[in-house]
């Protein structure tokens, strides 16, 4: 496997990179948190949690320290940092290299604009992980990992990256429809943003029948936008987005919400990364880049998304301190659905 640079060594990038480096791959981290960089390259990054625990030293640098070109760059920053990171990494990407987006959302669109579509590869990740602090990452649970070219082709480089991802997740999938997976997860992602409006766990939110209406409305709006854009959504083990298609029966959607309550109750990661951004790290979330873009792409295709708009508005209210994370804040969304 060619040299791999992981840009963003947090929950997703740090877990993946630690696994690869332990397996003998040539991995380098780049991260903007200097204390995390220093820990990873000296004492190592500690992977904690129920899946497996180990500590791995990984060569690491801040963006200012980085030198050289790399044939493979895995971009694993928050969605709102995608454009800035893509501009920063571009001088370090080999002419025949590519960027793999290991993020949530449709960031491949922005990456392709900056480094070119031929140098952009898509990836869908759904394992549970949290950055706990410098040199510490919680790997809460295994989850789906899917890889595919954004033009739907299968190339030698795609097969090679798929094999590399199987080192981390043996059930990793190689697909010709990466956009279907990414849109499918957006429906789940919109629901996770809604759970972050409260202090309750993901499981407690999904198990509350009074909140079900909002989750179903969000899922349906995402799927309506996907259908209007001729995307064929694909599910994964933990989530079936087709239950929220415009013509799907309500009972099917309710079954999926019930299964999410069960699935999330079994993870060591009790709250979403969105909740952690709001409640712990006190920082802006990825709501505009992950969820707001659904409304924009839906409008382009003639689909209105009022629940999505209200969700984005409420997340901004919490970010800016106008509303607390509370059951009452989520109820505003429920009442609007």
Number of H- or I-type helical stretches: 13
- Poorly predicted regions are none
Give helix and strand order, one letter per element, not per position: EHEHEEEEHEHEEEEHEHHHHHHHH
**Percent of residues in beta strands:** 15-25%
Secondary structure: number of strands = 12
Q: Calculate the mean pLDDT score and round it.
A: 94
Helix proportion range: 40-55%
Q: Report the major sheet.
A: 8 strands, mixed
Strand order of the largest sheet: 5-2-1-6-7-8-11-12
Q: Overall 3D geometry?
A: globular
Distance between the termini: 49 Å
Structural class: alpha/beta
Radius of gyration: 19 Å
Describe this structure in words.
By secondary structure, the protein is α/β, with parallel strands linked by helices. The protein is built from 13 helices and twelve strands. It has helices at residues 11-22, 34-42, 82-89, 108-115, 156-168, 178-195, 202-207, 212-228, 250-265, 273-279, 287-300, 306-319, 327-336; strands at 4-7, 27-30, 45-48, 54-56, 60-61, 70-75, 93-101, 120-125, 128-133, 136-141, 145-149, 173-174. The relative contact order is 0.11. The model has no long low-confidence stretch (mean pLDDT 94).
